Amino acid sequence: MRRIVGSLQPIGRALMLPIAVLPIAGLLLRLGQPDLLGIPLLAAAGDALFSSLGLLFAIGVATGIARDGNGAAALAGVVCYLVTMHGGRALLQVPLDVTAGLADALADTVAQAWKAKAFARLDVPVGIVSGLIGGTLYNRYATISVPAFLSFFGGRRFVPIVAGAAGVGLALLVGGSYALLDAGLDIASRGLVASGHLGLFGFGILNRLLLVTGLHHILNNVAWFVLGDFNGTTGDLRRFFAGDPHAGAFMAGFFPVMMFGLPAACLAMYRAALPDQKKAVGGMLLSLALTSFLTGVTEPIEFSFMFLAPLLYAIHAVLTGISMVVMDLLGVRLGFGFSAGLFDYLLNFGRATRPWLLLPVGIAYFLIYYGIFAFAIRRFNLATPGRQPVETQPETVTQTDARGAAYLAALGGSANLQTIGACTTRLRLIVQDQGLVNDAALKALGAVAILRPSAQSVQVIIGPIADQVSEEIRLAAAQGAAPRTSAPIPATSPPSSSVEARADIIAALGGVDAIADTRLVAGRLRIVLNRAVNVGSLWTIADVHGVAHIDDRTLHIIGQGLTR
């Protein structure tokens, strides 16, 4: 399972780059409408971006998949996309009734228009696949050597060429099987509509549960860009901006949660904070609440309690699913270009259906979230922000050059990083040695959580500045800052007294007799062994996110709830 998740995560990350275009597309399209500024130029510009989403996905996904984001990968994605789209159209058979009774010249024009409209239903899926092909081919062939007389076409220049050949194959596949693909989309769309509230409920729950892996982006792309059809425009999000009065069901339910529910959770965490820590966490929680309310960016809030209180997060996921159903029952249709925040709500108010009903539902969600979080935090003594032991931490670094170097050092230095990437709120990294990643130092720099989806994958949740910080880390690495170190544990976080590991961890290491000492060190479980053991079975334990060998007899286990 870890390998499957690990292989899908780069796709989820790559999808975020083209999605970043949606805010400006939605802004231009809405501002150009008659009920706002009424400027046709702006409306046409926004519509152009929405109409070209397939091409934008080809460019963005290829760039995100490429190991260094080189433009040759983006060009390869474009080549593959254009060859597939235009080549595939040529294979379509136009129904006889489409051109019946028309003159030859007009019939040819109508036939071409029919093909273009029919194939446009697949533009985003074809764009994503083309981007994956372009980025993968770049990683494979960017350094290829060719005979001397063909040297001009070697290296990166070879990538768009082979991408064109791949596009021909993809065009044959898609064009030849268009009838099956089109029927499949119709069945999926009708099935989704037929599933009604159950489908919306499931979508809301899965959207939140998949957040921890980053795979919710893949689920969102299916619902927002592929399913449904309104005059040739597919996807709930695109249909909403195209004027489909029935679109928006897969977006409306997020508004009560992101604008009201999660800010209420922040208020509950602040009021439950210890008196001597309220001042310290108040500013952070206010910032997180405003970010969620205004922009709909919620990950920093969710990761602040996701691992501390999994049951609370499960309730949050269920409430998201319920919100989707409630808004649909009330006939509310809301849309967004970026996320379910106040900015998108106000911008698209005139295009929405019954948008004012968000206010009573939102107030109800505010009270529900506040009540649940306030009760759970105190009843179960959850270590939410402001209720954790105070540790002396180094001063947070904010200067651009110093921040990148500080993150680089906390991640074990440039030699420890194989790839550096980011999505909306998290750094996505592949490292050589998990043991060199200093969780305490990362949290001192402002990280909300550190995830380890696989043996070499690390995700650092830091909020909307993730992309900026990733560039600073790349720059610091290029300048040779922070050489690889052993990432020593800060003197301010001394080892704790001995603790007892969970029974399943003890069993995986060969029993009590195999363990000489167990301590918590800077958030890690340090185990000293009496003899060498096979630690492979530790990876089968759900709460274990990483295992690092310090030496033959010492292990650092990273995860949540590892002690009794």
UniProtKB/TrEMBL annotation:
Its main location: membrane. The active site is at 423 (phosphocysteine intermediate). It is found in: Cell membrane. Residues 2-389 form the PTS EIIC type-1 domain. One of its GO terms (biological process) is N-acetylglucosamine transport. Keywords: Cell membrane, Kinase, Membrane, Phosphotransferase system, Sugar transport, Transferase, Transmembrane, Transmembrane helix, Transport. It is a multi-pass membrane protein. The chain crosses the membrane at residues 12-31, 37-59, 118-138, 158-181, 187-204, 247-268, 280-297, 303-327, 356-377. The keyword Nucleotide-binding does not apply. One of its GO terms (molecular function) is kinase activity. Residues 401-483 form the PTS EIIB type-1 domain. This is PTS N-acetyl-D-glucosamine transporter. It comes from Sphingobium terrigena.
